[in-house]
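Lab notebook: predicted structure, single chain.

Context: the supervisor wants predicted structures on file for every construct in the current expression panel, including those that have not yet been purified. This is the next one on the list. No modifications to the sequence; it matches the entry in the shared construct table.
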Amino acid sequence: MASTNSWTHETESQVAAPRMFRACVMDYHTLAPKLAPHIIDNAHHVEGDGGVGSIRHYNCGSAVPFNVVKKKIEFLDVDKCEFKYTIECDGIDMATWNIKIKPTANGGSVAKVECTYKGANGKDMMLKAKDSGADMFKTVDAYLIANPDA
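Prediction complete. Output recorded below exactly as produced.
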């Protein structure tokens, strides 16, 4: 029987929290394939309007240990920059991700990602997913800094 495990990752950014949240959460399905196709090859809505209960389908790139991921939005508070979703993918029985992006005193932000997962191959897969997620935050951060009107 697979055990339940978790990890937490924090990433600081020079970008303001609402702008980082919009790019990393609300626009992720369109921005990720453009900025990091090695992480997300393409994405589309399966159902919903992008709010709670919506499901998105992602075809993953070579840097991610999954071929396909279905992401269901469980909680979304745009004003507080908080987001929770569950994923379905091969090798994972269950995975829940919580993302909170908070403002910092210098006008930037800090993103805290917490993931809880269960699955026979879950640990190795989810640690690779953690690395891909951290890479994506850095990529989005650099893009937003280089493109202040984006």
